[in-house]
Amino acid sequence: MLLKHRGFPLHYVIPSLLTYEVSRSSSCSCKYLILPNGFRVILPIKHQNIRRGTLYTHSEIFIYNEYSKLPEYNVHNGDIVLDVDAFVGLYTLSVADKAGLIIAIEPNIVSYTLI
Q1: Residue 34 neighbours by CB distance under 10 Å
Q2: Distances (CA, A) of 95 to 37, 56, 76, 86, 106
Q3: Rama region for 84: left / alpha / beta (φ>0; ψ in -120 to 50; rest)
Q4: 3-class SS of residue 53
Q5: What's the pLDDT tens digit per position in 33-57?
Q6: What burial letters (b/e) apply to 57-95, b meaning 16+ CB within 10 Å?
Q7: Where do the domains of the chain lie?
Q8: pTM listed for this prediction
């Protein structure tokens, strides 16, 4: 089922439906996306493609539950999770409260610094 908001697929309008926190300090002006489990993810202002990708991936994981449709991807207490091509760590954060150990690997240096 495709979720819609005002006739548009939800992942196109997701920024208006999410919880954000803005931090302004002398070192950084950052926008954080608050995940349903309370973790925060940095939305980089300078890197528009990463910001868009983060919002799209957020909708896949937390709204459409794409990562939990297959039983093999359901994480149980104490499981070891290997997140290859972790991007900014959204999946890693989505299972952080269940997994016993998480290894997140990301080859892109910009995305890696945001994990």
Answers
A1: 13
A2: 9, 18, 9, 13, 17
A3: beta
A4: helix
A5: 888 888 888 777 677 778 788 888 8
A6: bbbebbebeebeeeeeeebeeeeebebeebbbbbbbbbb
A7: 4-114
A8: 0.72
